[in-house]
Amino acid sequence: MKTFPRKLFDPEHELIRATARQFCEREIAAHHAEWEKAGVVPRSAWRQAGDLGLLCMTMPPEYGGAGLDFRACAILIEELWRIGASGPGFVLHSDIVANYLLHHGSEALKRSWLPRMARGEVIGAIAMTEPGTGSDLRSVATRAVRDGDDYIVSGAKTFITNGQSADFVIVVAKTNGPGEAGLSLVLVEADRPGFRRGRKLEKIGMKAQDTSELFFDEVRVPRENLVGQEHRGLHHLMSELPQERLIIALQAVASTAATIEQTIEFTSNRRLFGKTTMDFQNTRFVLARALAQLNVMQVFVDRCTELHVAGQLDATMAATAKLTATEMQNRVIDDCLQLYGGYGYMWEYPVARAWADARAQRIYGGANEIMTELIARTLQEGSE
Predict the structure, then answer these.
(1) Active site residue: 62, 240, 244, 265, which one?
(2) Among the three residues 71, 98, 122, which one is the final residue of a domain in this structure?
(3) What is the C-alpha to C-alpha distance for residues 234 and 179, in angstroms, rounded to an integer?
(4) Of 174, 176, 215, nearest to 192 (Cα)?
(5) Do 313 and 304 meet the contact criterion of CB atoms below 8 Å apart?
(6) Is position 8 within any domain?
(7) How far apart are CA 236 and CA 214, in angstroms?
(8) For the chain, what percent of residues have pLDDT higher than 90?
(9) How far apart are CA 236 and CA 239, in angstroms?
(10) Structural domain count, the chain
């Protein structure tokens, strides 16, 4: 499969890729099917990733990381999704939760949690979504009420990645009445009285990924567990969302590339009516269109990654990357699955897993309808 030449990575990045690929193939791919049945990735896999330096790679060395730029994270994302490993919540842990602590947490919180996160000794999660709120963070009902030197956290969260495994959760909660000005981020340790894990949720896809309900029944935490400034939680969330949306775009492109490659191999060997499926013009045209879309999207997402590394990726462009990459992912993988015939509907085939996993990509990180609205708001910027 001929793809457009990439210039995103330097030669030294290939060393990271070699480590990540070997780890993913030997330690992740070999066990992913059993993790899908269990609905969770074991802690041993987290510790192995930490031992290899694959967690929290962008964290400064003083906090246990390697001090690398985001391109190192992109490599791990690509290698995980290349093999269809949507289960491990490494990326949310390393490149979303850890960033909230690094950019907004106190020195005490950073030194307490980040080195252990980098080693895979503890697992982090962030709890935004609530039953009935979806992408509307301004409607959060969970509260963190000041009581002397503590906060008392009460509420419920759902669809929380790493929820069953997390040793701590950064909770989005109201601290000052209605509206966006009242939101704050509060770190809640999982061993606090009143913290309770609900169901391990059964999903259409991403079956190995630990996704859970969480409940906070008057959980008392010290004021020092505040992440960032009080009442500035929404601002902190908005500052980190572009990277989260770029991550989703990277996942989409990597999954699409792997699926096209697998489909080319399958159709080149599957025989119908005395010839291979690839011999039919329709098959070749479907795959040609898929490859063309992939190449265009790869160039765009690579450019967005370059901008992000340079600190120049804005919210609109990140939303554009998330919207267009995930729409392409769903469209192309669906087309590829059709070329498998009935085999495409069998869970044992990677295309079936990729198809099921892809659907959530258009929902989390801000639904694609929200991405479209964000882009639409810029249509008249700069006009007279």
Answers:
(1) 244
(2) 122
(3) 10
(4) 215
(5) yes
(6) no
(7) 22
(8) 92
(9) 5
(10) 3
| 240 inside domain | yes
Q: Which residue has the tokens 């990140």?
A: 318
Instruction: State which residues form the domain around 112.
Output: 13-122
Bridge partners, 86 (sequence order)? none
Residue ranges in 52-150 assigned as alpha helix (H):
70-82, 90-92, 98-104, 107-119
Boundary residue ending a domain (62, 96, 122): 122
Three-state SS for 268? helix
Q: How far is CA 359 from CA 362, 363, 367, 380, in A?
A: 6, 8, 11, 31
Q: How far apart are CA 215 and CA 233, in angstroms?
A: 20
Residues 67/60, Cβ–Cβ less than 8 Å? yes
Contact indicator for 140, 130 with CB cutoff of 8 Å: yes
Tell me: the pLDDT tens digits for 262-281?
999 999 999 989 999 999 99
Query: What is the average pLDDT score of the chain?
Result: 95
- Amino acid residing at 229: Q
pLDDT for the residue 382: 66
User: Domain containing 51 — which CATH number?
Assistant: 1.10.540.10
Q: CB of 214 within 8 A of CB of 131?
A: no
Active site (annotated) includes residue 27 = no
Q: Determine the pLDDT at residue 231.
A: 93
Instruction: Tell which residue, 250, 215, 204, has the closest CA to residue 360.
Output: 204
Same domain, residue pair 357 and 253: yes
Kindly tell me the sign of the dihedral angle through the C-alpha atoms of 323, 326, 327, 328: positive
AA letter at 295 = N
User: Which residue type, as a one-letter code, is found at position 362?
Assistant: R
Please count the CA atoms within 13 angstroms of the CA of 42 that sit on its side-chain side. 12
- The DSSP code for 138 is G
Q: What average pLDDT score do residues 152-171 get? A: 97
Helix (H) or strand (E) holding 143: strand 143-147
Residues 6+ apart with CB under 8 A from 196: 214, 215, 216, 217
| Same-domain pairing of 63 and 149 | no
Model pLDDT for residues 21-56, shown as the tens digit of each residue: 999 999 999 999 999 999 999 999 999 999 999 999
- Poorest-confidence range of 53-57, 132-136, 322-326, 369-373? 132-136
DSSP state of 354: H
Angle, nearest 10°, between helix axes 315-339 and 368-376? 140
